[in-house]
């Protein structure tokens, strides 16, 4: 988690929906018992005249995620590290390999940090480097959230000694590409309620 929005004092109750979620001019616009897919709860059938939005049965006040803390509250996560352990099995050849290959021991792991050129077998990854290697910007990702895929490629020629079977790491964003702008993405970031 790199950023968060706090909605203090929420209690289950009835309150107006956010502007733009389900606008109304009269109670007829708010069908009681129904839901709007992008809304915060079940409509009560009442048009709240203070906001001209339908009243909902929900956690109130409803979360307003239109204003996101900037800069992100946990920018230090850029320097957090991730230890990846993985393995691959080639059952036909009775070969199992771990990414902790020859030469990767506790002493090496205590000092290394993954670098595609200088330390391509180090299993310790800095989050900021993972985001950068995926082509994204950490500050933007930290602001809105996101998901990065890590591909561990085990392309091995088992006709040669198994010690040559080593992993290669690739990184990519799971919700768009780095060139996308806010207006071209259907869903920016990653979040949960």
Automatic annotation (TrEMBL):
Transferase as UniProt keyword: no
Topology within the bilayer: Multi-pass membrane protein
Name the record gives this protein: ATP receptor
Main location: membrane
Catalytic reaction equation(s): Ca(2+)(in) = Ca(2+)(out)
Similarity comment: family membership: Belongs to the P2X receptor family.
Location relative to the cell: Cell membrane
